[in-house]
Amino acid sequence: MEVLEKKYPVDAKEYKLYEEVGEGVSATVYRALCIPFNEVVAIKVLDLERCNNDLDGIRREVHTMSLIDHPNVLRAHCSFTAGHSLWVVMPYMAGGSCLHIMKSTYPEGFEEPIIATLLRETLKALVYLHAHGHIHRDVKAGNILLDSNGTVKVADFGVSACMFDTGDRQRTRNTFVGTPCWMAPEVMQQLHGYDFKADIWSFGITALELAHGHAPFSKYPPMKVLLMTLQNAPPGLDYERDKRFSKSFKELVAACLVKDPKKRPTSEKLFKHPFFKHAKSSDFVARSILDGLPPLGERFQMLKAKEADLLVQNKDLYGDKDQLSQQEYIRGISAWNFNLEDLKNQAALIQDDDNNLIEENPNLGLKDRLDEQSVHTDKPSSEGTIHSNTSDSHEDGFDDLDSLEGSLASFPIQPLQALKGYFDIGEDDMKSIRYKNASLTDAEINFSKTENEQVGRTNGDNLVRSSSLPQFVNAGQKKALSGPLLYENYPEFDMSGYIRSFWKECNWDNMQPRHPADRNYSGPISYRQRRDTNNNTLVEDSSEGAVVKRKGRFQVTSADVSQKGQICLSSGSTAGLMPPYLSASTILPTLQYVLQQNNLQRDELIKLIKHVELGNICESADATSNGISQLGVAWHWSGKSVDCYSDTFLAHGCRMSTQHDARHEPLGTTPGKCRLGDRKSV
Ligand SMILES: Nc1ncnc2c1ncn2[C@@H]1O[C@H](COP(=O)(O)OP(=O)(O)OP(=O)(O)O)[C@@H](O)[C@H]1O
């Protein structure tokens, strides 16, 4: 006999709204009573006027929510409009989201059996969604809801997509949605679209979120999250504090967080991972983490009050202008707003965050701190080497940002299309550039427009290169070379290595130049870590030569050390390493932005170097030099070369050798050339 489906009323009068239990970017969620059924439900109220006319998106969410039928996917009972709002009626999940539970009671994250259970149930939902052609696109703890019995349901299809929804059944997407911290690199890049593997990345990030209480990089503003996700090694359970987690958990995370989506397992395959043997029943979840919690509405109010307090504190620190930006990023934003003011605000927040990173973890040992820093100090910074402005007003740290104004003003609405110009480069594409004797001028840049256009085609991009590049990339070649690049004042500093290190870090696994053998990097440091999804071990990047020195996430390869630092922009052989449109003037704004971000990290490294010099770190006899070498690596890598030379290496009288055995050798430069503090006059 056919079971008649319960028909929920589609009239607001039939519901009684109780307290607020959740808030998203576009909606408020209430506990409510469905009067005719005397049943408690949740109603998500979307203000249609606040939804930027994204009615299609809303329609899609409601449609998806009504079609799905799986115990781990939150299904909408019904939906209807009421005035300017859309009401979506759904089962009430009294436990709230995993994010809320962590924020209120488990700020350090959950125990492993809980994580395994939550993840297994979430994965069941993903297996179902993927099998039915849906990509969720916003998997995160905030969208994993629990009912009072500990049953997990994945919610929020606001950004979900159907892989079969285009006429040609194209299986990839080309739109930019999701929440930055959880967003897969390929979603950020929008190079070749993406598919359901993007959910697997987000699932891996969610695993880390459940383990730590927050997602990696969650303290950073979106632009930095984006750069870190693209440039850093994938995050993992690698720190001292992660010792408590099992090998299988670490392997699961590593399997999901592979930058190349092709190497990530499908949800179905992942479901067979041994980690899920640790999973328990939903009852266990209810007993372990829900028992004794105040009602959801109360918790929500408490959290709101806490956030309001934080905002007040931050308002004192940053002023009114930053409030919106703060608010967005404290909550873990889902929306992107890339106007210049926001970028400035976000960049201005970074230093404080970097401080917090240390302050928040007073129990971290030196190694942890160094590791934390090493993860975040991922790219070279240009201070002391590239300068746009020699005026005295540098102290406030905003000059560089101001100088970005012209460039960032032309940032397109989808910023990654702009950054794409920096990331999507093959070695062949770089052949047309010519530099002479390290003096970079417009006349010496032979920029071939035809070749550049060709690049877009040969790379099979979804977007036409010329239109996807920000205006400043081309315009900058005409304007920005009027002085800032005075690196010839610093013959010790390998400008090309610097730019290429930066460049190299912008490339990742599947974006290597097409002829790796031709690569001729002289940048001394490589910071890369590949995870092989099959055996989950770290794999050396053989294209760069054997690893001759490694500590933590840093490694020095023979290819790195076989080349002496040299000013190479003049060299024909290295010319091919620069993309045709990546002149110094075009990357300058980005470098300046990066520079702004890395100031404190540099200071921290200098402090650590001093710490090591003072013998405050006890390692084996040989380890002191290793430590210095490693810090030298971090130093060079962070690109603060001039300062660090003067502060530490001149004092020490040695620098990281470029010989194969990575010994130290005399610095060969005079202290007068680069004193600490010289950077401002560079
Ligand atoms: N059915 C439900 N029962 C209980 N709480 C819910 C329910 N649905 C949502 N919530 C709560 O409301 C919050 C916001 O809901 P939702 O994520 O759907 O809104 P959103 O605008 O799409 O948010 P975002 O885009 O930030 O993810 C959730 O994080 C959750 O805490």
TrEMBL record:
Positions of region (Disordered): 362-398, 663-682
Q: At which positions is ATP bound?
A: 44
Keywords, alphabetical: ATP-binding, Nucleotide-binding
| Molecular functions (GO terms) | ATP binding; protein kinase activity; protein serine/threonine kinase activator activity
One Pfam annotation reads Pkinase
Q: Where is the composition biased (Basic and acidic residues)?
A: 366-381
Q: Polar residues bias: where? A: 382-391
Name the InterPro entries for this protein. Kinase-like_dom_sf, Prot_kinase_dom, Protein_kinase_ATP_BS, STRAD_A/B-like
The UniProt record lists the Protein kinase domain at 15-276
Please give the PANTHER family that the UniProt record associates with this protein.
PROTEIN KINASE SUPERFAMILY PROTEIN, SERINE/THREONINE-PROTEIN KINASE FRAY2
Stated family: Belongs to the protein kinase superfamily. STE Ser/Thr protein kinase family. STE20 subfamily.
- Supply the name of the protein: Protein kinase domain-containing protein
Which organism does this record belong to? Chenopodium quinoa
